[in-house]
Structures are given as C-alpha cells and as structure tokens.
Design brief:
79% helix, mainly alpha, globular, 8 helices
C-alpha cells in the first residue's frame, strides 16, 4: 500500500504541474511534494528500512527542481547507501560530496562523511571532518558529538 502511495505521488508530480497555470503555484506545490517524499524517506531511515529509503531517494534525486532540499536529499542518500543491506561506500561518498557541493556548511553531510572515513580506516580525514564541524556548529552540536562518538567507537 505504501509503495502504491509513493508511486502515485511521483505520478502526481508531473500531472499536477502540467495542469497548473501559475508558475509560483507549481513551485510551491512541487516543493511541498518534495518535502513530503523527503519525510517518507526520513521515516524509513528512522525505522532502519535503509533499502526502501534508498530506492525513494534515488528517484527523488533524479529531479532537477529539488531547490533547498537538494543537499539534504543527497545527504540522506549517502547515509542510505552506507547503511543499506549491501553498502556501497563509493556511492555514499559521492552523495555526500554532492550534498557538500550544494551546501558546503551542511553539518549532517560533514558528520556522515566523517563516519564514512572511519569505516574506510581514514582516521585523519575523519578528524578533519570533526574539525570542520567544530568550526561550523561548535562542540555542543549533535553532529559534532555524534562524529566524535563514532571516531572513539572505531578506535576502541
């Protein structure tokens, strides 16, 4: 049932946009649809359904009009590639880099890229991400604390 809803939502993207006469209406409706699909992906990740989130995010990332959500979508895409049942660290890396290309100050992408570096045994690069996070959001931010915890976990 959920799959059907998602498919219908994707179909409605183009059908609704074509039927709407006002460009601003299309933009705001499109942004709302993107946000809704993004939230579905977040819920799937929260429920450890990484493969389902990955499929949704791959389709979502194919759109050209992601606006402000582009970095967030690519960040979650990288996370899903890394956490899926068949992790693809190269695709994960590329997704994080795309997120950072669109938003160089994206704290989540810096955190998850640091975790990816630890998975690859690249501690120095992970520490560089931790330094960047300290400069971006400070030591009290969750992203900083989570990456620090991940680094300590991999080192023990």
């Amino acid at each position: 049932m959920k799959k059907l809803i998602i498919i219908l939502t994707f179909i409605s993207f183009n059908a609704f946009a074509a039927a709407t006469s006002s460009k601003s209406d299309v933009s705001s409706d499109r942004a709302e649809q993107i946000n809704n699909l993004y939230e579905v992906a977040e819920k799937r990740i929260y429920n450890n359904e990484y493969d389902k989130a990955l499929k949704l995010l791959i389709n979502l990332a194919k759109n050209d009009d992601l606006g402000q959500k582009k970095a967030d979508i690519y960040n979650l895409l990288g996370f899903s590639y890394r956490k899926s049942s068949n992790p693809d660290l190269d695709k994960s890396f590329n997704a994080y880099m795309t997120a950072l290309e669109y938003d160089p100050k994206h704290a989540g992408a810096h955190e998850y890229l640091g975790e990816l570096y630890m998975m690859r045994g690249e501690t120095e690069k992970a520490m560089n991400m931790l330094d960047k996070l300290e400069n971006l959001v400070g030591k009290n931010a969750n992203e900083y604390k989570d990456l620090l915890k991940a680094i300590k976990s991999y080192q023990s």
